[in-house]
Amino acid sequence: MDRIVFTRGVPPPEAFPADELAECFGAAVRGDTAVVLQYGHQQGYGPLREELAREYEVSPANVMVGNGSLQLQDLVAAHLVRPNMVVYTEQPSYDRAIVTFRRRGARVIGIPLEEDGISTERLEEALSREVPAFLYLVPDFQNPAGATLSLEKRRRVVELASEYGFTVIEDVPYRKLRYRGEDLPLMRELDDSHVITMSSFSKLLSPGIRVGFMLGPEELVRDLTRLGENTYLSPVLPTQAAVAEYLRRGWLQPNIEKLKELCRPRWQATEEAVRRELPGAQAFIPDGGFFVSVMLPEEANTDDLVGRAKKIGLVLTPGAAFFADPDDEGATPGDRFVRLPFCAVTPDQISEGVSRLASLL
């Protein structure tokens, strides 16, 4: 029996623009040798920061480039969190972010996620009890659930951030992978006074190049630059320079279109399989990104679901990993939550995999 792997949200290997990246690496190393192959300024490779500043209409002083966005999240947490401070996330949320914030001493509290994003009513209730070091959101095609934060809720979140004086991290690595519908504005476009925007090229080019970026206040970028220099000395300039060259040549958008063309049938196959095989589950069907998710009904047999799935060749991520501490006294439903990353599996594998999942319930 073939193994079907529904664990990591990664691009399919056939999507990697290997020849183009090789050309850009060569051009970057030969064209700017003294900078690219030397210890570098921690804020990131200058030409890449300038490219990003133009795209997002900010100053290069507001841009920091790091070794993936998770590293930047860690630096922000190290800078803003003091022992026993609270950080709010969606519930469920990105598992590695939860671990990262906890490692920096935060109590990570999850605010329930609804079909149109985080519950702003529950967020406001939580804020009335305790103001966080920051609120971490994945507003577009959320990891792990797939939900997208509505325009109304985006406006409400930035209003609450201004009212209570806390920082919002909007993490948007999936934003450019929209398969249907129209883009909603970034929260920073509504009010950037309390918003840090993060993203990366992991989903659009390659996870292995480890290039992420952050847009934030100039003072914060300076503080994190110093913290980074004391943490890992220098960014990985060859990969950053290769990405800058890739952008300069205008190759990113055509590659995004190729990636969407490859992933769209897999997204459609996942929706169809979930509707057909799991009619009793609450399904989050996004308009883009890498993930469909389901909350299984309470009566479903979820005992040792991951272990039983493995025995029939289906590899799942334990749902509990995506849940922070609850914002009330209730239990988290992690045993009923299943994330289905679809981009690295074929439509046939998706159909078979969801069928196997249904057989266990």
Overview features:
Aspartate Aminotransferase, domain 1, single chain, 9-stranded mixed sheet, alpha/beta, 13 helices, Aspartate Aminotransferase, domain 2, 361 residues, 3-stranded antiparallel sheet
Summarize the helices and strands and which ones pair or pack:
Elements: E1 4-6, H1 18-31, H2 33-36, H3 46-56, E2 63-66, H4 69-80, E3 86-91, H5 95-103, E4 107-114, E5 117-118, H6 120-129, E6 134-137, H7 151-164, E7 167-171, H8 187-190, E8 195-200, E9 212-215, H9 218-232, H10 237-248, H11 252-277, E10 282-284, E11 291-295, H12 305-311, E12 314-316, E13 325-326, E14 337-341, H13 347-359
Parallel strand pairs: 1-12, 3-4, 3-6, 4-13, 6-7, 7-8
Antiparallel strand pairs: 2-9, 4-5, 8-9, 10-11, 11-14
Helix pairs in contact: 1-10, 3-10, 4-5, 4-9, 11-13
Overview of the molecule:
Helix content is 42%, strand content 17%. It is α/β, with parallel strands linked by helices and 361 residues long. The protein has two domains: 4-15 and 254-359, Aspartate Aminotransferase, domain 1, CATH 3.90.1150.10; 34-248, Type I PLP-dependent aspartate aminotransferase-like (Major domain) (Aspartate Aminotransferase, domain 2), CATH 3.40.640. The strands form three sheets. Strands 2, 3, 4, 5, 6, 7, 8, 9 and 13 form a nine-stranded mixed beta sheet that branches. Strands 10-11-14 form a three-stranded antiparallel beta sheet, with helices on one face. It is globular, with a radius of gyration of 20 Å. The model has no long low-confidence stretch (mean pLDDT 96).
